[in-house]
Amino acid sequence: MTSLRVLAVANQKGGVGKTTTAINLGTALAAIGQKVLILDLDPQGNASTGVGVAEEARPITSFDVLAGKATISKAATKTLVPNLSIVPANADLVGLESALMSQPNRNFRLRDAVTAMLAEQKARPADVPYSYVLIDCLKHTIDQIKATLNPALEIQGVVLTMHDARTALSKEVAADVRAFFGPMVYETMIPRNVRVAEAPSAGKPIMLYDYDCPGSQAYIKLATEIIERERRLRAA
């Protein structure tokens, strides 16, 4: 069975392209042969909308999964992209913390749900298993989670998004990030691109909205780079 990788698309700051990256990286990974699941953990449900899953088409959501009312497999909804599914989200997530206040192991609900999904996949060897789960988005700091909840958590890589090669500021930021994180930073940079910004309003990943635009091609390159890095890590 293909080894499952769970990647959280995370940043402390809002409006930096987390959801856009989750959607389009997932699409690009699916396009090059991976089976991908996006977990939408944002009450606004922007990732769900961005892959064309309308709010009325979300009978089972990530709230139901985290509340223990449904499994990931039951909640997973197919998208317009072959090999790409999503566990959608809606405003119910706003009340999740209070709903779980008295529940044991509430901090590990997502981990347990993914573990249960893996068990289901092993029980159905004829089905093609997911190879990547992308989580949009992780709001707490990586260091805090690593220290208290998940010692095995690690930064798989750093993606530079909304990059404008024409400006000195973007070049300076890119240089600073590479100096700080070193080889963890991917060579591929996602450019600031009007077509990428337009795609969510159309309910489509950028590869379906405008395959030939620079943003679309950048996400394809990023997906390829991620897979190549994964292979090197497994071989080491």
Question: What's the arrangement of secondary structure elements?
Answer:
Elements: E1 5-10, H1 18-31, E2 36-40, H2 46-50, H3 62-66, H4 72-75, E3 77-78, E4 84-87, H5 96-99, H6 109-123, E5 132-138, H7 142-148, E6 158-163, H8 168-181, E7 185-191, H9 194-198, H10 206-209, H11 214-235
Parallel strand pairs: 1-5, 2-4, 2-5, 6-7
Antiparallel strand pairs: 3-4
Précis, in short:
This protein is of the alpha/beta class and 236 residues long. The chain contains eleven helices and seven strands. The strands form two sheets. The chain has a five-stranded mixed β-sheet. A two-stranded parallel sheet has the order 6-7.
* Number of separate helices: 11
Secondary-structure-derived class: alpha/beta
Instruction: Please tally the β strands and state the result.
Output: 7
Biggest pleated sheet: 5 strands, mixed
Backbone shape: globular
Quick check: average pLDDT?
Answer: 90
Low-confidence stretches: none
> What distance lies between the first and last C-alpha atoms, to the nearest angstrom?
20 Å
